[in-house]
């Protein structure tokens, strides 16, 4: 396609009227064409106003679900490239690819993964469970069946929490910059610990969660692993009701009582 | 009502979101979610899917806020563009294509495609300015722009819907958008 033909596609692109493969081609052109960048940016301002016409109040549960999910979601590294450049260079996969294209058509392949419509928030579970999963403390982490069922259990718990009307979340950041959050639903009697960017520990160490009662007495809530990505760990029922959840680093296998200072303490009201 | 004159405040909110401020993100959601959910719902139509897509949009926004460049466009355009793209992507499933093709055979193309979009010009009291601008477009341009933006139709779909060549679709959309830009401006008033 000639440059002139590509230029003339800018309007179709801005209004979302290009087919997925055409949008891809145009995006490549966009990275090196300042004129088209300006045109597309200008048109986005216009089409954005069209959206005003159909403004509709979303359900309140959506707000809770969104806020709960972002509490356990890492943000992208700031870009050093110009905002309109499309960094579609294969550094990321899956949902992140769409995130990268902040000004452009989401380059989502036509073959989307099939979603079960268990609730409106299955996608949230998929994101959090995809990489580095914790679960109930397992004696044998090499057992694939247990890991799979732990994954499903955590996914179910997350879905349950996020679709409940009383989902609550409290989050914090560790000294090393890892983000952690506890998400719970009293009505569903489930609580999850979510971590993003928690570094992998040497094999002789483990993370351990604790519920801390009103008197400051810690009770073990199990051990879990993280590989530096996003981790979800289902907390035992006591965590749903207890005041505070803390995390420490212990020797592999866990400890009966914390031996180190918590890397984070999250207080549930 | 989510006023568009809040753009400078939205820019500041978004800067705080980029720094990881979840309270700022909640405010950002509160100020923008009616429009985001509205356009997603209108394009996707199915309410359950609209809620899923809206959530995806806001998670995208949370993650990508760190790379938002205020010099490149307004926060509203940034967010609404993400929303529209996500919605169009969802609606361009093969299932929806098949439904549309079947519908075109069953009814005349004009009725099938214009039934839903015609509702737009009579609704929503707080968008008189935009509605006026849309209504001022010559009908061929208005139809093409609205089928693209509100129905999520590709230029090929529109070509079938309106029974005109691809080149004509492109011209009508270009002219329609230019006319809207002249009337609405790029920045909200």
Could you describe the 3D structure shown?
The complex is a heterodimer of chains A (269) and B (189). With 269 residues, chain A is α+β, with helices and mostly antiparallel strands. Helices cover 33% and strands 20% of the residues of chain A. Chain A contains nine helices and eight strands. Chain A has helices at 3-7, 10-14, 20-30, 34-51, 60-71, 95-100, 122-129, 144-163, 238-241, and strands at residues 168-173, 179-185, 190-196, 205-212, 218-224, 230-235, 244-251, 264-267. In chain A, the strands form two sheets. A four-stranded antiparallel beta sheet of chain A has the order 1-2-3-6. In chain A, strand 1 and strand 2 (179-185) form a beta hairpin. In chain A, helix 7 packs across helix 8. The longest helix of chain A is centred in the middle third of the chain and has 20 residues, at 144-163. The model of chain A is unreliable at 81-145 (pLDDT under 50). With 189 residues, chain B is an all-alpha fold. In chain B, helix 1 crosses helix 2 (22-44) and helix 8 crosses helix 10. The longest helix of chain B is centred in the N-terminal third of the chain and has 23 residues, at 22-44. Chain B is globular. The chains are: A alpha+beta (269), B mainly alpha (189). The interface between A and B is large, with 73 and 83 residues.
In short:
The complex is a heterodimer of chains A (269) and B (189). Chain A has 269 residues and is of the alpha+beta class.
Provide tags for this entry:
heterodimer, A: about 270 residues, alpha+beta, four-stranded antiparallel beta sheet, 9 helices, about 35% helix, about 20% strand, B: about 190 residues, mainly alpha, 10 helices, disordered N terminus
